[in-house]
C-alpha cells in the first residue's frame, strides 16, 4: 500500500455487534441499546477501535432488521433515539468510533414509500422501486435469482405489474436510477451523521444499481429452487443485476457527504468474478473507503486455500480492503475449522494473519470468546433462509452472547426466555469466566490486539510473501514485521529469525506448534 494521508481507521480493529443478540437491558429477551451501553467497557478493555451496530431501525423483522420501515427511527424493540445517543456518547468517551448499518438496496414492504407505491401506481413513490409489466408470454421479466435463492419478481395483484426483490418478497428493491431516491438517502445519511455516528456499513453495496434494461444474466450452470441459495446464485454470470458502473457515482456522492464529517464508508462488497468493478468502488479514494472481502468465511483450514483467499483481492484490488472470518450471516469459523479446541486454535491463528493484512480487520461478537456456532432444536428456527433445519441457516451464528454463568447468561435476566436459545453454551464460553482465566481465548485476543496496536509501521508497509520450503506455512511480511501460521498437525520452524512479539499457541522459540501463528520482528 502506497503512502497516503493518514485516516483514523488506518490502524483500527473493528467489532460487529448483532444488536438482537448482544445484550438485553430491559428483560424482554432481545438485545437493545440499554444492554449495549453496559457492555461497551468490555469492548474498550478488549482493545476495539470501531463498533459496527447492525440495523436497529423500525422494522417488521421479517429479516431481523434488514427490512427497514423507517430509516430515521429506532425500533422500540431496541429502545429510543436517546438510548442510541447514549451508546454513541459513551463509545466516544471510551475512544471507540461507531458505524451503523445502512440498508440501501431495498426497504421493507411496510415502508411508507412502498405502501404509497402500492396504493397509487401514479404516485411519485412508485418510481422509488423497480416495476415492470408482465411479458406477453406469461414468463417472468428476466431470469435473475435472489441472494436467498428463488425468483426475484413478485406480482402486485392490484396493478398486474411485477416488482423486483433480490431478497425476500417483503424486501422490494429501490430504484437507484431515480434522483429522488438519492436525495432521500442524502438526508438519511446526514440525519445520523449529525447525531454523531462515525460512518456506515453499507449493506449489499455491490447490488444497488440494476441494469437499465433489466436484461437476463448469462446462465453458466444448472439452477433450480431445490438447490442451496449460493448454488443457485453461482449458476449465473451476474452481469446485469450487480456491480453496475453507475454505483460509483452514488458512492462518490456519499463520500463527499461523509468527508464533511470525517466519516467512514464501509461496504459489503464481495464478488469473485468482477474484481475490476469492485476495485473501482473501493480503490479510487473517492467512493467506498473500505470494502469487505469475505473469502475467509468460505475457505477450509488449508494453507493453499488461505494463500489463494488473500492473493485474489490483494492482486486485484489496489486499496481499501476489509477482512473478517465471521459475521451474522455465516457459520462461525471455530465450527468450520473443526470445532472445540482445534477450531479455536485455528481461528485464532487466522486472526493473527488477518490482523497483518493491508486493510481493516473486524471481529464478530463472541469471536473473542472462541465461540462455536450455537446448536439449536428444530422448533427454534427463526431465520427465513436455510430450509427447516435451524443449523443450516444463520440462527446458529446469531445466538445471544454468553456474558456470565448466571441464569440468563448475563445476556438477559433470570427467568427471561431469549429470542434465540443460547445454543449449548457453557460456563467456559462466558466472558466472565474467561476474563478470570489468563489462558482463555478472550485474553489471547486481547493480547493480540494490544500487540497489533504497537505495530503502526505496517500501515504504509507493502505486503510481501515470505518464501518457505514448508507447504504448510503461510508467511508474509509488512516491512520488518512477519506474520506466520503453521497450517499443519506437525511442528514447523518459522522461515525468518527475530523477536517473537506474539504467539497464538504453545510452541517455543521460533518453532510453531500445530495450528499456531506468530508475529515476529525480523532481525536485520
Please indicate the count of domains.
3
What is the radius of gyration computed over CA atoms, rounded to a whole number of angstroms?
23 Å
Helix content: 10-25%
Straight-line distance between termini = 22 Å
CATH class of the largest domain: Alpha Beta
Number of strands: 20
Largest sheet: 8 strands, parallel, barrel
CATH topology-level fold name of the largest domain: TIM Barrel
* Biggest sheet: strand arrangement: 1-2-5-9-10-11-12-13
CA-based shape: globular
Any idea what the CATH architecture of the largest domain is? Alpha-Beta Barrel
The DSSP helix count reads: 12
- Helix-strand category: alpha/beta
Q: Which whole number gives the mean pLDDT?
A: 96
Bin the strand percentage.
15-25%
Superfamily at the CATH H level of the largest domain?
Glycosidases
Contiguous runs where pLDDT drops below 50 for at least 5 residues: none
Amino acid at each position: 500500500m502506497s503512502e497516503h494521508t493518514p485516516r483514523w481507521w488506518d490502524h483500527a480493529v473493528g467489532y460487529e455487534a448483532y444488536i438482537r443478540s448482544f445484550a438485553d437491558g430491559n428483560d424482554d429477551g432481545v438485545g437493545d441499546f440499554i444492554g449495549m451501553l453496559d457492555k461497551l467497557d468490555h469492548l474498550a478493555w478488549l482493545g476495539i477501535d470501531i463498533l459496527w451496530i447492525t440495523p436497529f431501525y423500525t422494522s417488521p423483522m421479517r429479516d431481523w432488521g434488514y427490512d427497514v420501515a423507517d430509516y430515521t427511527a429506532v425500533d422500540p424493540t431496541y429502545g429510543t433515539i436517546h438510548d442510541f445517543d447514549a451508546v454513541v456518547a459513551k463509545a466516544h468517551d471510551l475512544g471507540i468510533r461507531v458505524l451503523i448499518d445502512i440498508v440501501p438496496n431495498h426497504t421493507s414492504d411496510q415502508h411508507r414509500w412502498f405502501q404509497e407505491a402500492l396504493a397509487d401506481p401514479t404516485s411519485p413513490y412508485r418510481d422509488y422501486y423497480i416495476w415492470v409489466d408482465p411479458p406477453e408470454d406469461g414468463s417472468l421479466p428476466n431470469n435473475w435469482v435472489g441472494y436467498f435463492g428463488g425468483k426475484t419478481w413478485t406480482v402486485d395483484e392490484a396493478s398486474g405489474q411485477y416488482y423486483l426483490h433480490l431478497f425476500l418478497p417483503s424486501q422490494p428493491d429501490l430504484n437507484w436510477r431515480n434522483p429522488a431516491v438519492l436525495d432521500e438517502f442524502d438526508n438519511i445519511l446526514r440525519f445520523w451523521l449529525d447525531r454523531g455516528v462515525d460512518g456506515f456499513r453499507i449493506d449489499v453495496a455491490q447490488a444497488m444499481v440494476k441494469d437499465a434494461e433489466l436484461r437476463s444474466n448469462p446462465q453458466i450452470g444448472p439452477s433450480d429452487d431445490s438447490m442451496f441459495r449460493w448454488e443457485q446464485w453461482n449458476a449465473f454470470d451476474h452481469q446485469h443485476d450487480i456491480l453496475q458502473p453507475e454505483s460509483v457515482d452514488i458512492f462518490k456522492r456519499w463520500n463527499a457527504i461523509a468527508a464533511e464529517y470525517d466519516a467512514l464508508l464501509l461496504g459489503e462488497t464481495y464478488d469473485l468474478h468482477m474484481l475490476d468493478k469492485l476495485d473501482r468502488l473501493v480503490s479510487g479514494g473517492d467512493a467506498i473507503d473500505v470494502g469487505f472481502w469475505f473469502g475467509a468465511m468460505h475457505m477450509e483450514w488449508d494453507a493453499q486455500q488461505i494463500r489463494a483467499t488473500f492473493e485474489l483481492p490483494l492482486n486485484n484490488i489496489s486499496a481499501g480492503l476489509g477482512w473478517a472470518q465471521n459475521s451474522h450471516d455465516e457459520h462461525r469459523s471455530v465450527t468450520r475449522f473443526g470445532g472445540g479446541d482445534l477450531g479455536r486454535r485455528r481461528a485464532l491463528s487466522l486472526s493473527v494473519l488477518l490482523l497483518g493484512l493491508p486493510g481493516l480487520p473486524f471481529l464478530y461478537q463472541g469471536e473473542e470468546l472462541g465461540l462455536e456456532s450455537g446448536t439449536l432444536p428444530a422448533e427454534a428456527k427463526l431465520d427465513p433462509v436455510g430450509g427447516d433445519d435451524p443449523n443450516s441457516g444463520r440462527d446458529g451464528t446469531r445466538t445471544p452472547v454468553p456474558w456470565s454463568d448466571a441464569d440468563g447468561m448475563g445476556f438477559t435476566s433470570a427467568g427471561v426466555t431469549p429470542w434465540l436459545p443460547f445454543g449449548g453454551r457453557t460456563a467456559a464460553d462466558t466472558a466472565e469466566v474467561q476474563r478470570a482465566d489468563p489462558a482463555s481465548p478472550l485474553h489471547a485476543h486481547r493480547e493480540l490486539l494490544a500487540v497489533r496496536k504497537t505495530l503502526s509501521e505496517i500501515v504504509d508497509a507493502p505486503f510481501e510473501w515470505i518464501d518457505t520450503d514448508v507447504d504448510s506455512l503461510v508467511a508474509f511480511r509488512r516491512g520488518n514485521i512477519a506474520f506466520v501460521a503453521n497450517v499443519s498437525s506437525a511442528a514447523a520452524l518459522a522461515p525468518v529469525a527475530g523477536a517473537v512479539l506474539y504467539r497464538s499457541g504453545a510452541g517455543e522459540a521460533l518453532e510453531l506448534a500445530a495450528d499456531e501463528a506468530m508475529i515476529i520482528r525480523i532481525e536485520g
